[in-house]
Automatic annotation (TrEMBL):
PROSITE patterns on file: ZINC_FINGER_C2H2_1 (PS00028), ZINC_FINGER_C2H2_2 (PS50157)
Main location (coarse class): nucleus
InterPro entries in UniProt: Znf_C2H2_sf (IPR036236), Znf_C2H2_type (IPR013087)
UniProt domain C2H2-type: residue ranges: 1-28, 29-56, 57-84, 85-112, 113-140
Family: Belongs to the krueppel C2H2-type zinc-finger protein family.
Name of the molecule in the record: C2H2-type domain-containing protein
GO function term, MF aspect, one: DNA-binding transcription factor activity, RNA polymerase II-specific
Length: 140
């Protein structure tokens, strides 16, 4: 059982260990291409598909390809207009949980991604990454 949130993992101690990383923020699996880090190696493996262009999952309605099965699932939900995640603040609806989580930051004003060089903060890691390119002179 997790001491932080009391979630129970009856069968597998490895799952508890991985779950604990969500509380500690530990992400030991890092992408060599963009330095994005993950708690699980399988997440890194799926992420690497975004760099090599591999898209094994295709939408039967429009033919668009995706590197991850769950991304295809959310895409198909968008075709059907299915948006099960609704914001309690403004009632805007989203097809996937990560989108509403990111959206909620607009209401809270939280900007968890902070630049180490100038202290500017962002709601998305991708915004911070783009900002860091300005410091290094790298072009996006």
């Amino acid at each position: 059982q997790c001491k932080e949130c009391e979630k129970t993992f009856s069968q597998n101690r490895i799952e508890l260990t991985r779950h604990m990383m969500t509380h500690s923020g530990e992400k030991p699996f890092q992408c060599r291409e963009c330095q994005k880090a993950f708690t699980r190696n399988s997440e890194l493996t799926h992420h690497m598909m975004t760099h090599n262009g591999e898209k094994p999952y295709y939408c039967s309605q429009c033919g668009e390809g995706f590197s991850q099965k769950k991304t295809l699932k959310y895409h198909v939900m968008a075709h059907s207009g299915e948006n099960p995640y609704q914001c309690k603040e403004c009632e805007k609806a989203f097809s996937c949980n990560s989108d509403i989580t990111r959206h909620m930051l607009t209401h809270s004003g939280k900007k968890p991604f902070q630049c180490r060089e100038c202290e500017k903060a962002f709601t998305r890691n991708s915004e911070l990454t783009r900002h860091m390119m300005a410091h290094s002179g790298e072009k996006p």
